[in-house]
Every structure is written in structure tokens, then in C-alpha cells.
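S.,

As promised, the S-adenosylmethionine run. Input:
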Amino acid sequence: MSSLYRRYIRLLERWPIDETKTGRDLGEHLRDQVKKQFRRGELIQGDRLKCEKNCASLDRLADDYYLKQYPRSKDFTSCGLGPESCKIILHNDNLAEMPMGFFEKWIHRYQRWKEKLIFSNDPVAFSQTSSKTPPHRPVLVSQVLEYLQPEKCRVLIDMTFGAGGHTRKLLEKSESVKVLCLDCDPVAQGYAEALQSEYPDRVVPLRGRFSHLPDLLKAHGYGQNSVDGILFDFGCSSMQFDAAERGFALSKDGPLDMRMDSGAGGGFTAADVLAHAAEEDLHRIFKTYGQEKQSKKIARAIAQTRFSFGPLTRTYELRDLVATTLNEHMRLDKLGRYSHPSTKVFQALRLFVNNELNEINHALLLARSYLKIGGVLVAISFHSLEDTIVKAHITGNSDFNRGELPLKFYDCGAIFDPRSLGQLQKHCWKAINKHVITPGVVELDSNPRCRSAKLRGAIKVS
Ligand SMILES: C[S@@+](CC[C@H](N)C(=O)[O-])C[C@H]1O[C@@H](n2cnc3c(N)ncnc32)[C@H](O)[C@@H]1O
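Predicted complex:
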């Protein structure tokens, strides 16, 4: 097999087929091209240059070079190109082709690889398949390891264990580190127990919410100022998004549940909120937690629907109602990506049902009391509401009744002597990175779900 063919195959791995874009999907188009170009046999020497050129074009495509050059529109591929421009970039009559059968063999391998990637909700299967097929792919792993430095730590807390991707990497990096693994999700608990059987003395599963941490740590003999590092990876895990019956994903039909703890702590479901909250409250929920500009219209539509037809109970019902009410089928988000018009409504309900923002605020206060001086906090957030809270804590501005100016400078009329000014400027965190760290192109390619991840790190200094 020629090295160019191998390069093509590697490129193809970066372009999985998007079934929603039949006839105008770049991944599909690439496969057709490769199939045609490599059918006849090995390349002859003279064509090598042209072929190299083709690969360079594909490389540029994969690195979003063309997206930056051309504005994106609805009929264009995910890299910003229409089918015609794809054809021009890929066109090369001089390519000789591989013998018959090569491509078919590769397709078979690709199918097997895809099957392996199908997320499994079964912790036992996960423990057997090891870290190669994690049901949730951890994000920004190298930065987490760099900041937490497990080789120098004795005890770390993974506050959002999920499928244990980050914890596993921490355990692999250092043999002396012990990780306390918190999560409120019973599925995550299963993964934590499976990991504990692999590392019996080094993994301690803790089941509960962030706010239950003091009791859980007390039960295991940990007090304040006793932990070397704390990791947060906020949001939902892939296991939660991918299970239709959990009701988190608008792309899967299921009951509108959205409780991260699957109801273990009681609590109300998203369907309960939609059935019982007053129209005005629904409007406030969508506006505050979803930053949805049309929240009033959506709240009214929900109130009218439940009055006329009964309560909304399924994800598809809510999704379609919002799309019909707003008369939109696609929206562009702040980063210029297409999203469904109900995305923000789903986010708002999830944050409200799980009291997520208050939990995060409380958890950051707990992190401050349980870390040792010199201990490290790492927080990965996925939207601006989460990141604002993390940033406010790290910059010493965590009281939420602030105005335009940071709270510590809020009293504009006050005259400060140098000592009290020093006191005001002093706070307990020292930020490690000035600006948020985001995933690089390679990580984005292999794990598109990490596209909005933002990492902040801080050291407890007082
Ligand atoms: C993005 S996932 C973490 C994935 C994990 N880092 C990994 O690599 O597999 C976030 C996890 O945090 C958990 N979680 C979110 N809010 C929580 C809370 N208030 N208390 C406890 N766990 C929470 C969710 O159940 C979910 O499993």
C-alpha cells in the first residue's frame, strides 16, 4: 500500500460521514474520491507531486483553513465548502488507483472501528474493554496532568468522576496518588467501583452531590486543608447524553427526566417543571439559565400547550414545540456553528433541575476549604454561565451582587489607605493561566464534543 494511500486513510479518519447531510457531506465525498483514485493500482512516480498537493489540500481542510477563508452557509459542508469547491480541491485525474478490494477491506475495518466507538453504559463491559474504549472521552487531559502534577500529590479529588477518564490518567501517571471520586450519577458510581477493583487502595468512590462533600469526606477521615488537588469537569457525561431514557439529549426521544442522580435524591424532573411551573417562572428559567432571547414566547407556548393538550413529557415533544413556536429549524451559535433552536431551552431545564450553578458555586467554596495551601484547583467548564462562576472565584470576586466593577472596588466613594487596599486585593487563589485554555485542533478533530471546553487552574495561596 502506498504511503499516500495511508495518508488518505488517516485523513478520512478525521472526516466521519455525517448521515444528516446526504449528498453534500465532505466525508462521503472524500470516500468516493479515494475509492475512484486508488482503484487501479500503485501510483506512478510522475504523479506523486500532484498527489502530494491533493493531500496538502485535505490537510488544510481538516485544519479548518477554508472555514476561515470562506463564510459558512446552510448548504455548505462542515468545513465551509460547497460540493463544487470540494470537487475542485480534490480533483486529480492523474492519480493511479489501488487494486480492487483495498477500499472494501478498509471500509470493513472502518465499520469495526465505528462499532467499537459506540458508547456503552455497562460499567462491567467498560472495565473489561479498559481505557481503549471509554464511554466518555476526557477532555484537555495533558493540561489537567500538567496542572495537577499527580507525581507530587498524595490525595486528589475528582469531583466529577463520570466514566473516570481523568482519574484513570492521574492514576497511571503516578503510583503514589490516591483519588477520591465523587459523582451523583449511579452509572458513574458503577464505573468508580469497577476502577476501584483495578486500583483497590488508590480509588475511593463517593456517591453524592458537590454539596454532600463535607459529610462524605468526614466519613473517610478527611478534614479541611487535607487535599492536594481538586478537579472539576462540569456538565453532563456522554453516558448521560447518549442514553435516551435520561432525557438530556434533544436528538433522542425519551422521557423529559434530566436528573443527573436518576432521582436518587428525589427532586423533580424536567417534565415536572414544564407541567407545574408558572408561565412567568418558565420564562425566567429559560432566560437566566439558557440566555434564550425568545424565552417569553417559548414559555407562553408551553403554557398554552399544556392547557390545551396536556403536559409535555417527551424530549421530541419539547424540541418540536420550540422549533414550531420560533419557526426556526437551525440557528447559528456564538461560534458560528449550527444548533437546534431548542438547545438553550434544554440547557436551561438541565441546569435548573440539577441546581447546577448553585452547586458549582458551593463546590468552589468547598474546594477552597478542603485544599491545602499550595493545593491546585482545575476547573473545566462548557458554557459561559459555568465559566463566569469559576472566574469570579479565582479572581476573588465571588459575591454575586456585584455591579459593573469588580466587587472589591465597588464602593467608588471610599478612600483606601495602602494597608486596607492591600487587604482588599489579597485573596485565596492565584490563577495559573491568565486566559482560559481551550482544546487544540487535534483534540477537536478526534472529540468534537470538547469544542466548548475551557480550562482554568488556580493555586490556593491563603
Ligand atoms: C463531564 S462529566 C465528567 C467526565 C469525567 N471527567 C470523565 O473523564 O469521564 C461530569 C460528571 O459530573 C457529574 N456531576 C455534575 N454535577 C454534579 C454534582 N452537583 N454533584 C456530583 N456530580 C455531578 C455528572 O453526573 C457527570 O457524570
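The pocket of S-adenosylmethionine is lined by residues 136, 138, 160, 162-166, 182-185, 188, 209-210, 233, 235-237, 260, 359 (CB under 6 Å). The mean pLDDT is 79.

- D.
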